Amino acid sequence: MATAPMALVAAVLSPSHGPRGFTSKAVVPPSNPRAAAVPHRRGRRSSSARCAISTVNSNGRLAEADRATAAVATVGLQDLQATPLLRRERHDEETVTMIARVTVHTDSILQDPGKWSFGSIADILFRPNWLRLELVSSELDPKTGEEWEISSYAHNQGRHDDTEFTMVLEASFAVPVSFGPVGAVRVVNEHTREMEIGGITVFREGEESDSDAVTFHCNSWVHPVDKRTFFPLNSYLPSQTPEGVARLRKEELQAIRGDGQGERKSYERVYDYDVYNDLGDPDRDLDTKRPVLGGKDRPYPRRCRTGRGFTKNDPLSEKRSKEAFYVPRDEAFTERKNLTFKAKFALEALNASGRKIRTKDHKSLSFPSLAAIDAMYKDGFRNHPEKDDLDLWSSLIHELEEELGHFLQFEMPEIHDKDKFAWFRDEEFARETLAGMNPLSIQLVTEFPIFSELDEATYGPADSLITKELIEEQINRVMTAEEAVKNKKLFMLDYHDMLLPYVHAVRELDNTTLYASRTLFFLTADGTLRPIAIELTRPKSKNKPQWRQVFTPGSDGSVTGSWLWQLAKAHVLAHDTGYHQLVSHWLRTHCCVEPYIIAANRQLSQMHPIFRLLHPHFRFTMEINAMARNQLISADGIIEGSFAPGKHCMELSSAVYDKFWRFDMEALPADLIRRGMAVEGKDGKLELTIEDYPYANDGLLIWDAIKEWVSDYVAHYYPSASDITGDEELQGWWTEVRTKGHADKQGERWWPMLDSRDSLVQVLSTIIWVASAHHAAVNFGQYPYAGYLPNRPTTARQIMPPEEGRKGMRRLALEPEKVLLDTFPSQFQSTLALPVLDVLSTHSPGEEYIGTHADPAWLAEGKIRSAFEKFRGRMMEIVAEIDDWNEDPERKNRHGAGVVPYVLLKPCYGDPANKTTVMEMGIPNSISI
């Protein structure tokens, strides 16, 4: 039954029906969107620019969470009375009446009705003066030389959109004919509650549909203590800023940076940096103390500063919040996304709750059989897209009914649905290094013999036991080992030097173990990889010498050898799955992108063309990262509890960042070349070492399309290199990325300098690639591939039988299946991991996909709109190319009996909810899940 506030709102407004998708409400830009627009005398329209109409228009709410497309500034309410510019109107010249129509989104009342009293809702609906608007001219007042503003209150009109939970207010202005083009709209919320402003349309009375309309978009929260400034869609470099709003542009940037003091409040919009010192909770439990990530000892990217105080038991650890971690207000999820995300997570947890309750006191309890693992999944209940054609409440009820109908059972992962024995086959083990959820680790072997770079005195002998003789035996002596290296036939998953320093520490933890590993593959004549050797190593200690052994695919022809090979694969898969989660996924996308977002908001005005290019690729990333710090990567969080290497997970990601991460290697071509998976040909094009490498094949198509789009965009706004070097905001952003966001890497010489169009295009393309396609490639395949635990165990719990000696080998001979099940994650660990993998693999309602979502500012500029349409068209061509490749029987890494087609980098076309699986729904613009 509705509460009184909700009942009152429902009586006046209509409920939401469906997502507020941008693409379904595209703006038709004016015929001359770059022209300045100003009021004119009624009935006497001149042909000059000064006689066009001036419009600030939202055209409805265009994007569910495009909250900051328009620029903003924050000023205290006390400043409202101090400025002499308010209500400065001309009384000595003719005026025209301009109407400002404002949409206010009230679905926040539905999200948290408990915070809304009957009086506050009545206040918003019936109080005449709670929202004040100021129109700001883009020109200075010719008489005073000061900014020129006109103020008026907006009044409730009692209108609402049929598909949006919105209310409409209107303000009337008497605007002097000489006022000039409108350069900004300032909004003052005098209500007691924060309000989400959807859009503001300013038009000459009676001519709201004028074709000369200039569009502004808000979609942003305005708190009672704020005075917010929204700029038009016209993009300007700092040197091109209209005089009338030049001060506001700088004021906005200054306000958003904050002063670095105090704890941030949930309603604030302050962007600042801090180290990762909030992952532990030593005041609750000293065992959860975690080292600070960020600084000389443990280099790491920076996160958003929250300003909480420090714990009593560790002066370096920040207190954990009982509520969600602070993120700047406009970075937070929309109400629909937040409710859906929480509902999905809660329902997945419900699926696992019964099994967790039964096993929480026996966290090491293994599955009794492979059949028991299969019983966790409901056949026919598959990992599929969620329908997005229902309103919020209907979709939640639909999902609840579906989940309850499969209580204690999970969706069937696609890998197991396609082939029940895929997890056991060596062909699939190898194929997934090229077309699975972590295709970023496979590398070419360029030197032989293989050696470790670690200190022999600390860890033991550096040479590998994968010898020339062993390789040649495994490849049936079709060539020598040296020839195999020379002919680029040997490839490797190398987790040896990375994991060896952590082996002893991880083995002290409960319910897990660790080795360092090397896995060698041979490229066959049909273009597929065949695993030929796995080397597992335990480093030496004070009491024990180094232990290591090489396992091969049953070369001795014995059953025991086959089981040992399967156990060795389980260990390698646990290493690869942990590395995927901590490095390929978390570190290289979520973690490293956050500094770009913080720096962009601090240094780039929201009327800056580069901010408007990047902004769609930053959507929701800071919020999902804050959730990860709170629940996933925190001490005793889900990642530590169910993934290798346990409590040392984040330390490992720091070590990889220190030794491995380089911005200039994050572009796809550079990454492929670094791993030996491609070389640059004489014509400048890449030549792949493995021709049928689905991640690289599809990724290079996307990369080239992104780079062409960015090149067209940059060329329009920067005619020369001097425009780039002279752009103080752009240079300030890139300097801050290097010196603050990635402060521990600021001295590296590999950072690109923004001194030409080529360098700027490369930097921007890299960021867009990482935030969109790279993330899609490593995120949405998690549940389809790792949701079936034997296919990709998240951790390994038992040491190899040969290391245990005669006792271990005797147990293997008697109970081989039990040894394998004891090596797989426990039932408890599985029920921690599976819900998270499923949630992370889900596309959000109202998702914005690359090549389909256009920022309103792009559409307002003719050449940029044309460039984007070309980009969109190229995406559709790529869809057809990928479809052809997936049907090509010669491409055995993506086609064949039981083979899961590679569609993780297939662009969105049509309705994503109509696709067969979540993996083919498209490439989201941003890291939003």
Automatic annotation (TrEMBL):
SUPFAM superfamilies reported for this sequence: Lipase/lipooxygenase domain (PLAT/LH2 domain), Lipoxigenase
Pathway entry: Lipid metabolism; oxylipin biosynthesis
UniProt-listed GO biological process terms: fatty acid biosynthetic process; oxylipin biosynthetic process
Top-level taxon in the UniProt lineage: Eukaryota
Entry's Gene Ontology molecular function annotations: linoleate 13S-lipoxygenase activity; metal ion binding
Domain Lipoxygenase: from-to ranges: 235-929
Biased composition (Basic and acidic residues): 284-300
Region ranges (Disordered): 27-48, 284-316
Compartments, as annotated in UniProt: Plastid, Chloroplast
Domain PLAT: 98-236
EC number: 1.13.11.-
Keyword match Metal-binding: yes
Its biological purpose: Plant lipoxygenase may be involved in a number of diverse aspects of plant physiology including growth and development, pest resistance, and senescence or responses to wounding.
Similarity comment: Belongs to the lipoxygenase family.
Protein name (database record): Lipoxygenase
Gene source species: Urochloa decumbens
Lineage: Eukaryota, Viridiplantae, Streptophyta, Embryophyta, Tracheophyta
